[in-house]
Amino acid sequence: MSDHATRGYELVADCRLRAAVDLFAHTWDPVILAALRPGPRRRNELRAAIGGISDKVLTESLTRLLDSGLVERLRYAEAPPRVEYCLTPLGRTFVNGPLTALAEWTTEYGDQLTQALDDFDAEPPVSPPDAQT
To answer: Which residues lie below 8 Å from residue 12, measured CB to CB, with a gap of 6+?
Structure first.
């Protein structure tokens, strides 16, 4: 495989893979993208569909998703003014590709992941060997 073909998989500070993984790093971003999958939604519709997200976090997340080119803000020249958010073609590829793959993985392995996290939380902390007297 050529250096060009493998370059996207190097986890360095400015690589494309790291930039893509960052899309999952913000808790609400994938949730918002999934909520936009059926089609455009107004802000209040989006917030109601998601549930549990504050106005501040929704604003920050939408701004980040708009900046990344995954979401588009549609403004309608109506009275009263109407604004909707929708997936861009790039956003749709993200939702239908990696986000769907992650959802399928979670369906298959989510119970194992939850169990491992529960087991880890239940274990007492281990002291470093040099801390024992």
So the answer is: 18
pTM of the model: 0.75
Structural domains of the chain ordered from first start:
8-121 (1.10.10.10)
DSSP string of 23-62, one letter each residue: HHHSTHHHHHHHHTTTS-EEHHHHHHHH-S--HHHHHHHH
For the stretch 19-57, pLDDT in tens is: 788 878 888 999 999 999 999 999 999 999 999 999 999
pLDDT in tens, 117-127: 888 888 777 77
Judged by DSSP in three states, 74 sits in strand
Q: Per this entry, what is the length of the chain?
A: 133
Phi and psi based region of residue 65 (left: phi greater than 0; alpha: psi -120 to 50; beta: remaining): alpha
Asked if 50 and 88 touch (Cβ cutoff 8 Å), the reply is no
CA dihedral (55, 61, 67, 69) positive or negative: negative
